[in-house]
Amino acid sequence: RQFLALPIDKKTTRIARMTTELGEQDEKIKERKNLKQIKSGTVLPKQTSIGHELMKAMRKQGERSGRLSLMEKRAEFSRLDKANKRKEKEVDRLENTLEREELQLEKLLRENEKKSVEAKIFFERKTKSKQKKEAEIKKLTAEIGAPFISRSERIKLQEVMIDYNKYKDLLFELSPPEWQEAQKAKALKVQSDGDPEDKQVKGTEESDEPELFFTDPQQILDLMTDLTEKSLFLIQNTTTVEETAKELRKSLETTKQSRTVALAAFEQQTSSFVPPLAQKDAMWDALGEKVGEVYRHCVDGQITNLNTLEKLAHIENCMALLLQGLDNLPEEKLTMMKMIMDSEQRSRYVSVSRRGSRNLLKDHAKWQWDYSITPRVLCIAGFFSPLQYIVSKRDNKNVCC
């Protein structure tokens, strides 16, 4: 940092600094040797020759380092000179631009001053001419004596007339509808009757003195207070209606959300119900076919267009008749049938025991119990239901109904 802070003439390279230090040390050594030689009076030729060679080498190195440092300094000086020249050129260019801008500003200011002076003179002339014209117009109007209205006054009067017409229309609208209808009828009568000259005269009279429903300004104030109260009431009603509408919208949104949730749940339920419903439909179809077969075997063998419920009703009627017939049977026939059943059971038991298997005996006995002639006997005896009997006989293909 100290080296960087130094000026350019005092900055040197490391080699130059080392050479200067070595030169100073050599000079000190030579001075000491010279003092010793003077004191001793003897000088060694070898030592002096070596010292001279070292001094020459050190001088050469110092010269080289000095040349290098000079070259570096010259390069730095040339670079700095170029940079200074560039900056001077930029400064000159900026000064020239500033001078030009100052000249342009001065020109603009002079032109503006001239224009302002000219405008002031022109305005003063115009004002003077206008004042003269106004004075002449006033003199002429005073000399003529006729009522003369200027253009600005006409415009003001027209604006006042427009405002008064608005107020008139407002008062006409505030008046009761019956009075409005009467005024309209009068206007129609005036238009239908009379000459155009009379109409013009009447119109001028009406325009001078218009008819009004309100005779006292207090009536208008009272009506305005009533209207303000009504408007406030309507505003309150609108606020309440808006609040209720917001609540209804919220409730509708909630109901829509609940409906969407319910519909999703219902769709899930229906999707879960579809396979069992199909199974139930298949089961009901199979039961309907079985009922039709039972109906054909027991009631009527012809094809009919009856429903399953109607077929079941016919079958129940037939079964009721059969049960009544069974109740009317005598006890002797029942005992005889029981004996026949016992004998058949014994014969089966004997045939199965010969085979040597009781398990087969049970299964075979059950099977023979359902699909042999014994159900007929049991049905008559009361140990077997008539429907099972009919089904067993249908399977056995021996209908006895």
UniProtKB/TrEMBL annotation:
Keyword field: Coiled coil
Coiled coil in keyword set: yes
Domain DUF4200: 68-176
Cellular component aspect of the GO annotation: cytoskeleton
Region (Disordered) residue spans: 184-209
Coiled-coil region(s): 70-143
Pfam families attached to this UniProt entry: DUF4200 (PF13863)
Entry keyword annotation includes Transport: no
Protein name (Swiss-Prot/TrEMBL): DUF4200 domain-containing protein
Organism from which the protein derives: Cyclopterus lumpus (Lumpsucker)
